[in-house]
Amino acid sequence: MTAAPTLSSTRRPLDRRVVALVSVAVLVEVCFYSALTPLLPSYVADFGLSTTQAGLLAGSYALAGLLAALPAGWLAVRYGARGTLIGGLLLLAVTSVAFAFGTSFAALGAARFAQGVAGSAVWAAGLAWLVEVVSVERRAQMIGTVLGTGIAGAIGGPVVGALAHLLSPRLVFSTVGAVVLALAVAVVLTPARGMPSAAGDLWVALRDRRVLAGSWLTTLPTLMFGVVGVLVPLRLTGLGVGATGVAAVFLVAAAAEAAASPVVGRLADRRGRLLPVRVGLIGLVLAGVLLPLQQRAGTLAVVVVVGAAVSGSLLTPASALLSDGAEAAGAPQGLVFGLFTLAWAVGQVLGSVGGARLADATADAVPYLVIAALAVLTLLVLMIVRARDRRARPAS
Q1: What is the domain range of residue 371?
Q2: In the prediction, which pLDDT does 42 show?
Q3: 48 torsion bin: left (phi>0), alpha (psi -120 to 50), beta (else)
Q4: Do residues 169 and 202 share a domain?
Q5: 1 lies in a domain?
Q6: Which of 159, 174, 195 is the last residue before a domain boundary?
Q7: Which of 24, 25, 169, 302 has the fewest CB atoms within 10 Å, i.e. is most exposed?
């Protein structure tokens, strides 16, 4: 007699489908974010953009993500994670075509800003939908898989931009927009089963220290990413590395981080969130100390790649902590993943702009050492909290 299928076995195909759809969604979103880099010089030449306009065009996506992060989480709660993801994908498809056919700075900037809003919806709603569907025992691993795929989008983005430069922005971005539209249809056709959304609000979630810790552990590594993204290319160029070599270093670093994320997620599920958090913080400390000391391009490249893989691994347990804390506090997953998107954007902006300004005012080593010191303080706080929790437990 055949045994009846268990709940976990019947949910597993849906788990895999949702993981695949959310992974592709964030992959495409990150591709759009990074596709502008090889196209920016041609837009400056074709439309006569000033340096300030070029900076605004490049930064409008991130600015929109910063402003739309929490509203996107609220939409995921109000209209459902799956529905908000569909809306985000539809907006991304439309604005991609609008960007492809833009013929002025105002049109390009508006389309780019709207793409950033769509990106916030894709990330907040996609991760919330994922957590609603997958089992708690596989939560960190599946989040790591999605994050790894999203990081891989940073590799594919410049390739998409290069194709658009080679062929035609209208052809390439319209084609990708059609792909995003097909992805939205696939999400529509996917069953909406999953855990019901909690009724609490963000303030309830912020009372749980796991939510606060997850937010900080998201901001901290992205601070380093922002600093590295500005200072390392300049340092490599000063050491005689050309543009192709600089690009190769960052491509390998992104690939290493993407490969590490699912592995770290599996470790967080099996051994708890604290172990990968400690490893990631130690990686941040070492990277912050070692990066300014390197005098050779080869050793600097190795530190960048290894540092990205180790310190970037913080993002997976950080997002899992956010989800765990929201679940315990009875708060909606969409709101805390909106908070995740906000923390990511804050770290990127402060790291790139603030880190560059601090380096200009002092020396390149200073922003690295500040981040290393913050990582050390975070480790100390974790040790103190853990020791206090042990003392608070009643003796068995």
Answers
A1: 198-396
A2: 77
A3: left
A4: no
A5: no
A6: 195
A7: 302
Ramachandran category for residue 340: left, alpha or beta (phi over 0 → left; psi -120 to 50 → alpha): alpha
> How do residues 251-290 score in pLDDT, each as one tens digit?
788 888 888 888 888 888 888 788 889 989 999 999 999 9
User: Each residue of 157-186: b (16+ CB within 10 Å) or e?
Assistant: bbebbebbbeeebeebbbbbbeebbebbeb
The verdict on 237 and 155 lying in the same domain is no
Q: Where does the pLDDT of residue 80 fall: very low under 50, low under 70, confident under 90, or very high at 90 and above?
A: confident
Distance (Å, rounded) from C-alpha 22 to C-alpha 85? 9
In sequence order, which ranges of 36-104 are alpha helices (DSSP H)? 40-47, 51-79, 81-100
| 350 and 226 Cβ atoms separated by less than 8 Å | yes
d(CA 207, CA 329): 8
CA–CA gap between residue 71 and residue 339 (Å, rounded): 10
Residue 393's CATH number: 1.20.1250.20
Write the CB contacts of 3 (distance below 8 Å, at least 6 apart in sequence).
none
Which residue did the predictor score with more confidence, 151 or 286? Answer: 286
Residue where the block lists tokens 């605004």: 56
Which among 321, 341, 333 has a CA at the least distance from the CA of 76?
333
Rounded CA Rg of the chain: 21
Last residue of a domain, one of 195, 221, 251: 195
Write out pLDDT tens, residues 179-236. Answer: 999 999 999 988 766 555 555 556 666 677 888 888 899 999 888 888 887 788 778 8
